[in-house]
């Protein structure tokens, strides 16, 4: 009964798999302390030669994570500049803090509206905490690359084709936030994610091109019809204005003659005033009355 109670209490305790990256509570034990003392004694005996093995240098954009007897050393990552290591007991790894970019391979994705597309992206990230990037994950770069692929597939799988084509900035921002949260325990800061290209099937491209062409033709016909209607209204208004003033019609005739004479034509057409034609027709009817 006591054993079951202990198991229950042990099961209720949260499991913490995070590694202590501060190195403040490092306990090397008696053997470790003896080994450190022996290493220091050897360095003193071989001082002129051992100093070359103890002094290390890291660049401005690098940090050195030191493990002393398998434990993280106090003070966290070292650098930039000169730092010292004990050859027999210390091991260090350099971490580059510069921004790194990598291409996400094209991923075959089934969208929300059952369309298969191929999408690739580019991710920019940097190491924010050198100690966490070494102690909490085996390969920070490889883990970030795999996580970017799965995040791209999962996020685009919830979007329709139209949303993928039009909302690229929103998708990129969502991917960047998701990756940043997931890689925070690894000491990685995702700075930017961009969707590079969206490849559609050939048949779908033809269908979309035909749909766009039909939409453009329909829009052109509507615009042409609206233009004809507006032109007819303006012509009607012009005809009404000219009918109120016979002199304006004569001026229009003269303008037409001027435009025709400006061209090099062998034949010139002289339009007759409508009033003259009407008077001639009236006079002819008066001379030949209709027989009943």
Structure summary:
This is Band 7 domain-containing protein. This protein is of the alpha+beta class. It contains ten helices and eight strands.
Structural features, described:
- With 292 residues, the protein is an alpha+beta fold.
- It has 3 domains: 21-96, no CATH class; 100-200, Tetrahydropterin Synthase, Chain A; 208-276, no CATH class.
- Helix content is 53%, strand content 20%.
- The protein has 10 helices and 8 strands.
- The strands form 3 sheets. The chain has a 3-stranded antiparallel beta sheet. A 3-stranded antiparallel beta sheet has the order 6-7-8.
- Strand 2 (62-68) and strand 3 form a beta hairpin.
- Helix 8 (202-244) packs across helix 9 (246-262).
- The longest helix is centred in the last third of the chain and has 43 residues, at 202-244.
- The radius of gyration is 43 Å and the shape is rod-shaped.
- The N and C termini lie far apart (134 Å).
- The relative contact order is 0.08.
- The model is unreliable at 1-16 (pLDDT under 50).
Helices and strands in order:
Layout: H1 2-12, H2 29-45, H3 47-54, E1 55-58, E2 62-68, E3 71-72, E4 81-84, E5 90-96, E6 100-110, E7 116-127, H4 130-135, H5 140-156, H6 161-166, H7 168-183, E8 188-199, H8 202-244, H9 246-262, H10 274-287
Antiparallel strand pairs: 1-4, 2-3, 2-5, 6-7, 7-8
Helix pairs in contact: 5-7, 8-9
Oligomer: single chain
Number of domains: 3
What CATH calls the topology of the largest domain is Tetrahydropterin Synthase, Chain A
Which parts are unreliable, with pLDDT below 50 for 5 consecutive residues or more?
1-16
Class from helix and strand fractions: alpha+beta
Shape: rod-shaped
The first-to-last residue Cα distance is 134 Å
Using the CA coordinates, give the radius of gyration.
Answer: 43 Å
Kindly report the average pLDDT value: 79
CATH-level-4 superfamily name of the largest domain = Band 7 domain
Q: What is the CATH architecture assignment of the largest domain?
A: 2-Layer Sandwich
Q: Give the helices and strands as they follow along the chain.
A: HHHEEEEEEEHHHHEHHH
Number of strands: 8
What fraction strand?
Answer: 15-25%
Q: Tell me the strand order in the biggest sheet.
A: 3-2-5
Helix coverage percent: 40-55%
Tell me, what is the CATH class of the largest domain?
Alpha Beta
Helix count, DSSP H or I runs of 4 or more residues:
10
Sheet having the most strands: 3 strands, antiparallel
Transmembrane segments: 28-51
Family: Belongs to the band 7/mec-2 family.
Domain Band: 53-212
Main location: membrane
């Amino acid at each position: 009964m006591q054993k079951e109670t202990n198991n229950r209490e042990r099961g209720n305790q949260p499991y913490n798999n995070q590694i202590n990256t501060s190195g403040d509570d490092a306990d090397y034990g008696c053997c470790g302390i003896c080994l450190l003392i022996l290493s220091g004694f050897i360095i003193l005996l071989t001082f002129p030669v051992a100093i070359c093995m103890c002094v290390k240098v890291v660049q401005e954009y690098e940090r050195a994570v030191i493990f002393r007897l398998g434990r993280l050393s106090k003070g966290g990552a070292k650098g930039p500049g000169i730092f010292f290591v004990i050859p027999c007991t210390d091991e260090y790894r350099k971490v580059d803090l510069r921004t790194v970019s990598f291409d996400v391979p094209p991923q075959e994705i089934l969208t929300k509206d059952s369309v298969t597309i191929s999408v690739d992206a580019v991710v920019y990230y940097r190491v924010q905490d050198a100690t966490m990037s070494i102690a909490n994950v085996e390969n920070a770069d490889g883990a970030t690359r795999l996580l970017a692929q799965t995040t791209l597939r999962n996020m685009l799988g919830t979007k329709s084709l139209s949303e993928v084509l039009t909302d690229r900035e929103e998708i990129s921002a969502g991917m960047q936030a998701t990756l940043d949260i997931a890689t925070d325990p690894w000491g990685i800061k995702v700075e930017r994610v961009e969707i590079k290209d969206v490849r559609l099937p050939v048949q779908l491209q033809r269908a979309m091109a035909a749909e766009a062409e039909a939409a453009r033709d329909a829009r052109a016909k509507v615009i042409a019809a609206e233009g004809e209607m507006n032109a007819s209204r303006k012509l009607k208004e012009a005809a009404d204005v000219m009918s109120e003033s016979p002199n304006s019609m004569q001026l229009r005739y003269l303008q037409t003659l001027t435009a025709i004479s400006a061209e090099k034509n062998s034949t010139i057409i002289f339009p007759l005033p409508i009033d003259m034609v009407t008077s001639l027709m009236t006079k002819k009817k008066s001379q030949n009355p209709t027989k009943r």
